[in-house]
């Protein structure tokens, strides 16, 4: 049997431990799927696979037990599902056009969750349309609030939807609900002075909990949305680590422009002797300042946005497992 | 229209330390007042609080204040010649006519003595009551208020004084005030009238004991404590049941007070 | 006198009204909700008919228009006190019968409870005029009919909004604004049946053991003491004083009052560390008894007007209407 493994992998299939069998990886940007596609997934799994579907760690479906020869038939079948992504490129009957940039994950967001500061599904789909198809290895996730249920901090680019609370002292009854909650469950950014609330913007993380707790609407949402962009988090064998904040209080356009620019940055600096190179390792090599300069090129930041001057990623290093020595 | 929230500026004439945390302020305030009424006292910027009148005569009015918070800390910084602000008096206070010809028993715990001090002074040695017995309880000898007057009442046989706890230097009575209720002369139940003032828990146990001793509910008066913000029936902080402590109280007959559940 | 106005005529009426009145009504506060991308209906100044939101209930009641959430009572400087001036304009409010009745309940506390009138309430309240929004269907959580608060005569002008606007001008103060408009007899109608009905306990059936009843325990477990039921209520009137010092040694500053709520921690604290009603269930009992029992004993009508806002806003889905029914059931059992 002859299979161009590189080609099928880029087409959204995987080489599996059972010789001759592959698995189809279905993208579900934002982790939200119209249920009409479940019937299609069922049909492919039943007719071509082993009748099962795995829910992937990146919110997609993986259908195992498929013969490599059936790929062309399956690619025709999944055309409506791929078309539903609204990509800018023509898809036709040839299946997924790339696989390097992974499914854009999102928590359930404010379509359902009361904590959510934005429509994460919508934003994930918007990012999907912006960056996909692309074979560079990028992991991007959107989380609705700093609770970070989607674990954006484990991604190359994690977008944390935030809100700037606006305080109107004339509506405040000094009940302390916001201050107590912030002290106990958030970062303690709020304090009470002369029966009014004082916010320390340096440690406020924009979760919006003070707004939810307020019984009078003294704390309200700012009219413009803001985002925290955390970068270069990862799992992996070498140095798993959580992402660090690159931008605070940025607007959506700036966040999207940075991610777009990051693709160019990777193109310029990637080590082409490797099969693939993850963006985080490239930043390790070029240094943060080069990354910063290149991804911010021609990006207009709002007055409120703040860029990290330096970033020191920590993370885990297996070579210094001191506790075992 | 007159604005009842605007306080008057009042001169402090004298400050008398009673204990390490209770001071009596003698104020230049000439108003018609009844014992048991209260004023809303304030230091602008530090706050306002209801404070019972403890004594008054000849254009002077006394309040005894315990240092427990922001306002009282600010008050403690003031001395003779300084000013504080007051509005009132508020509340019903004690009506002397209720006790005419009675065997009057006044049972006061701690700072609860303040609102009945003037009343005790008035009835001690007066013919308007048939007899007067005062039962005073404090936590320790260091907490005793109005030391000179209390000693005089004890010496003249009007008052019995007890403290919850004391070291060996204390030669007087020890133990909770409830333990001394049985010593009161309650022989003429029809003529016996009792006033109970003090912390909520003390009022609860003393009134329960008095009822067991067959004192009629209608012959027991209590003074209830609530932290009014306004003193004039608007702010809602002192409402208990259908009564506003600042309007119908703070002095209630127990037959009424027991209806006010909280 | 009854009048009929086109929508354009109504807008020009509003424009003229604003020369002498600040005009408030229920309006959409876009993205004003506590949750992202949600609106909130609140009482705001309205300029034209299009500003009025007539199909959704407001989150907060109109009481904040004349009873501010936070109000400076006076400023002091070196021992002198000065009361702040208020806007000289009168206030016109578009509101429903339940809210007019609710304001009647507030009036009783601020103007009739005890011998003194509340100076600050009165000076604003005296300027208020009511433009009744005819309400014949209500909303899901309303129970005004059960509370006998569905009708009112205390309006200056009553209005029916449709393709045309019908007005019953009761107060002569507003006749000049309608002069020259088409006359049409109009008598405002009131809702006669809500989708939610509440059974009130008989006043005589509220006995002391009800205060100790275990039905309140449920609320100790469920209520989080946020106070939204108080802040959204048209009839909750409680407040707390605050002093703020601006300069050193309390030489300058202000005394103000802020809304207080019996569900909020600290409301029933007294000096020396003691606090009443530490259990949230006790607070629910205190509020319930005030709304449907002890206010009645003082003023001869129930305080609650069944606007249902407390049910709309409770993050714990506690239903006050449901609580009243539970109290009734327990009272009737015995």
What does this structure look like?
The complex is a heterotrimer of chains A (325), B (262) and C (334). Chain A is an alpha+beta fold. Chain A contains ten helices and 14 strands. Chain A has three domains: 5-83, Alpha-Beta Complex (Sulfite Reductase Hemoprotein, domain 2), CATH 3.90.480.10; 105-162 and 225-320, 2-Layer Sandwich (Sulfite Reductase Hemoprotein, domain 1); 165-221, Alpha-Beta Plaits. Helix content of chain A is 28%, strand content 18%. In chain A, the strands form four sheets. Chain A has a six-stranded mixed β-sheet, covered by helices on one side. In chain A, strands 1-2-4-3 form a four-stranded antiparallel β-sheet. The radius of gyration of chain A is 22 Å and the shape is globular. Chain B folds into two domains: 8-90, Elongation Factor Tu (Ef-tu), domain 3; 96-257, Rossmann fold (3-Layer(aba) Sandwich), CATH 3.40.50.80. Chain B has helices at residues 70-76, 114-123, 147-155, 200-212, 254-257; strands at 8-17, 22-28, 38-43, 47-57, 60-66, 83-90, 103-109, 131-138, 159-163, 173-174, 192-197, 220-223, 239-240, 243-244, 251-253. In chain B, 16% of the residues lie in helices and 34% in strands. In chain B, the strands form three sheets. A seven-stranded mixed β-sheet of chain B has the order 10-9-8-7-11-12-15, with helices on both faces. A six-stranded antiparallel β-barrel of chain B has the order 1-2-5-4-3-6. Chain B is of the alpha/beta class. By secondary structure, chain C is of the alpha+beta class. Chain C contains ten helices and twelve strands. Chain C has an eight-stranded mixed β-sheet with strand order 3-2-6-7-8-9-1-10. In chain C, strands 5-4-12-11 form a four-stranded antiparallel β-sheet, with no helix packed on it. Chain C is globular and about 65 Å long. The model of chain C has no long low-confidence stretch (mean pLDDT 95). The chains are: A alpha+beta (325), B alpha/beta (262), C alpha+beta (334). The interface between B and C is large, with 44 and 58 residues.
């Amino acid at each position: 049997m002859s299979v161009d493994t590189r080609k099928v992998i880029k087409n959204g299939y995987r080489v599996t431990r059972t010789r001759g069998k592959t698995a189809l990886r279905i993208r579900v940007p934002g982790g939200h799927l119209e249920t009409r596609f479940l019937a299609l997934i069922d049909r492919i799994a039943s007719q071509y696979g082993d009748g099962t579907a795995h829910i992937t760690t990146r919110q997609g479906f993986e259908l195992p037990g498929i013969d490599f020869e059936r790929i062309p038939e399956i690619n025709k079948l999944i055309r409506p599902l791929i078309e539903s992504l609204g990509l800018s490129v023509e898809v036709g009957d040839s299946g997924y056009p790339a696989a390097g940039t992974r499914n854009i994950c999102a928590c359930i967001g404010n379509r359902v969750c009361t904590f959510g500061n934005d429509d994460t599904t919508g934003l994930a789909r918007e990012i999907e349309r912006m960056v996909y198809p692309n074979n560079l290895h990028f992991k991007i996730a959107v989380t609705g609030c700093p609770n970070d249920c989607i674990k954006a901090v484990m991604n190359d680019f994690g977008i944390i939807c935030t809100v700037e609370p606006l305080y109107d002292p004339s509506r405040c009854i000094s009940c302390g609900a916001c201050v107590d909650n912030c002290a106990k469950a958030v970062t303690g950014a709020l304090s009470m002075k002369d029966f009014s609330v004082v916010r320390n913007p340096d440690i406020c993380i924009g979760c919006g909990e003070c707004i939810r707790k307020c019984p009078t609407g003294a704390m309200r949402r700012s009219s413009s949305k803001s985002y925290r962009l955390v970068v270069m988090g990862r799992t992996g064998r070498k140095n798993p680590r959580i992402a660090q904040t690159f931008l605070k209080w940025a607007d959506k356009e700036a966040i999207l422009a940075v991610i777009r620019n990051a693709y160019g940055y990777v193109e310029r600096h990637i080590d082409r002797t490797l099969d693939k190179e993850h963006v985080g390792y490239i930043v390790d090599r070029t240094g943060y300042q080069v990354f910063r300069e290149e991804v911010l090129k021609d990006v207009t930041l709002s007055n409120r946005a703040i860029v990290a001057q330096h970033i020191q990623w920590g993370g885990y290093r297996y070579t210094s497992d001191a506790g075992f020595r | 229209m007159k604005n009842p929230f605007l306080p008057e500026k009042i001169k402090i004439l004298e400050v008398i330390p009673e204990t390490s945390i209770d001071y009596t302020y003698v104020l230049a305030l000439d108003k018609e007042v009844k014992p048991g009424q209260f004023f809303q006292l304030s230091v602008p910027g530090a706050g306002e609080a209801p404070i019972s009148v403890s004594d008054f005569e000849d254009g002077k009015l006394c309040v005894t204040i315990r240092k427990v918070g922001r306002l009282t800390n600010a008050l403690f910084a003031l001395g003779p010649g300084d000013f504080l602000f007051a509005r009132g008096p508020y509340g019903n206070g004690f009506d002397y006519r209720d006790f005419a010809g009675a065997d009057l028993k006044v049972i006061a715990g701690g700072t609860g003595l303040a609102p009945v001090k003037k009343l005790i002074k008035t009835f001690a040695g007066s013919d308007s009551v048939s007899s007067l017995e005062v039962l005073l309880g404090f936590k320790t000898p260091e907490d005793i208020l109005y030391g000179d007057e209390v000693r005089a009442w004890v010496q003249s046989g009007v008052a019995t004084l007890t403290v919850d706890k004391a070291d060996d230097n204390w030669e007087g009575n020890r133990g909770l005030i409830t333990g001394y209720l049985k010593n009161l002369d309650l022989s003429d139940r029809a003529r016996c009238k009792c006033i109970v003032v003090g912390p909520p828990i003390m009022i609860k146990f003393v009134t329960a004991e008095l009822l067991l001793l067959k004192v009629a509910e209608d012959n027991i008066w209590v003074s209830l404590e609530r932290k009014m913000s306004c003193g004039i029936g608007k702010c809602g902080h002192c409402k208990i049941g259908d009564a506003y402590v600042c309007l119908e109280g703070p002095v209630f007959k127990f037959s009424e007070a027991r209806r006010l559940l909280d | 006198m009854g009048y009929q106005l086109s929508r354009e005529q109504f807008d020009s009426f509003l424009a003229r009204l604003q020369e002498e009145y600040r005009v408030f009504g229920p309006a959409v506060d876009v993205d004003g909700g506590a949750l992202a991308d949600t609106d909130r209906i609140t009482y705001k100044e309205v300029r034209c008919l299009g500003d009025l939101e007539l199909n959704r209930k407001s989150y907060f009641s109109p009481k904040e228009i004349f009873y501010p959430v936070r109000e400076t009572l006076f400023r002091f400087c070196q021992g002198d006190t000065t009361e702040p001036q208020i806007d000289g304009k009168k206030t016109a409010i578009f509101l429903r019968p339940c809210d007019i009745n609710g304001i009647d309940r507030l009036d009783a506390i601020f103007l009739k409870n005890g011998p003194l009138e509340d100076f600050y309430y009165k000076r604003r309240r005296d300027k208020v005029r009511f433009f009744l929004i005819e309400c014949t269907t209500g909303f899901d959580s309303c129970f005004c009919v059960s509370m006998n608060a569905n009708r009112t005569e205390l309006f200056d002008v009553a209005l029916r909004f449709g393709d045309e606007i019908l007005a019953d001008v009761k107060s002569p103060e507003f006749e000049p604004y309608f002069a020259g408009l088409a006359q049409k007899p109009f008598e405002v109608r009131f809702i006669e049946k809500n989708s939610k009905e509440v059974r009130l306990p008989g006043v005589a059936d509220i006995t002391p053991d009800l205060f100790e009843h275990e039905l309140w325990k449920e609320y100790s477990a469920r209520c989080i003491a946020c106070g939204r039921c108080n802040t959204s209520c048209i009839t909750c009137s409680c407040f707390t004083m605050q002093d703020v010092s601006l300069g050193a040694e309390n030489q300058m500053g202000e005394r103000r009052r802020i809304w207080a709520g019996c569900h909020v921690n600290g409301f029933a604290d007294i000096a020396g560390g003691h606090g009443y009603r530490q259990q949230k269930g006790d607070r629910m009992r205190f509020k319930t008894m005030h709304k449907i029992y002890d206010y009645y004993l003082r003023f001869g009508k129930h305080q609650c007007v069944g606007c249902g806002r407390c049910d709309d806003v409770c993050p714990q889905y506690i239903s006050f209407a449901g609580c009243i029914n539970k109290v009734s059931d327990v009272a009737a059992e015995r």
